[in-house]
Amino acid sequence: MLPAYIKIRDELKSxxxxxxxxxxxxxxxxxxxxxxFAVSRMTLRQAISVLVEEGxxxxxxxxxxxxxxxxxxxxxxxxxxFTEIIKSQxxxxxxxxxxxxxxxxxxxxxxxxxxxPNSHIIRMERVRYADDxxxxxxxxxxxEKIAKxxxxxxxxxxxxxxxxxxxFIIGKSKQTISAKLASKEMAHYLNIQPQSAILSLIQxxxxxxxxxxxxxxxxxxxxxxxxxxxxx
Length: 232
Hints:
- The chain starts with a helix and ends with a strand.
- The protein is elongated.
- It has helices spanning about 5-15, 30-35, 40-55, 80-90, 105-115, 145, 150-165, 185-190; strands at about 55-60, 65, 70-75, 95-105, 120-130, 135-145, 170-180, 195-205, 210-220, 225-230.
- The chain folds into 2 domains: about 5-65, Arc Repressor Mutant, subunit A (Orthogonal Bundle); about 70-230, 3-Layer(aba) Sandwich (Chorismate lyase).
- By secondary structure, the protein is of the alpha+beta class.
- The strands form 3 sheets. Strands 4-5-6-9-8-7 form a 6-stranded antiparallel beta sheet. It has a two-stranded antiparallel sheet with strand order 1-2.
């Protein structure tokens, strides 16, 4: 016969799988759950602890127990498109364009894009979503000589796909990842609390002929996105 806490774990997991408790939603209090299942709070805590260990729920100090977020994953291999990553995981990608301007490059853009100080670029800021949940804030810089071959919508909504459709062949990329805390401004765009964990990614992407076509500074919500390495 199964222990009571395992039965409770199984029932709660089943409810989560069926959508009774949505991702990110708060479960009832331990007292309420213990009353519902007619067990002691100690037995209820055992069931919750198993769910925590399995990554199904997460405890937040002073707040309660929540259904764990299912993070979007990106495999750190080659040049990647956010849109394709999101679609490959069964989610719907979307974009909110914050700003889009033709401008002269700053020192970092000159260096990473390997362009002259007098060469104009397109610099855009956008928030990228997975199933309407903000995942990343991006600042992307694109040489005008490449951007002028595409329209604004193609660049801001599905840049990599548009490049491919225009006949460009995407090559390698260089990526640097670091950890930081969200500023008030970033927290506003990403709908998180200030000082929340952020994954900062700098990516420089190249065409197959070695020409750099994009320099991006991205800030990912730590609890909604993760990178993983795959070696062969």
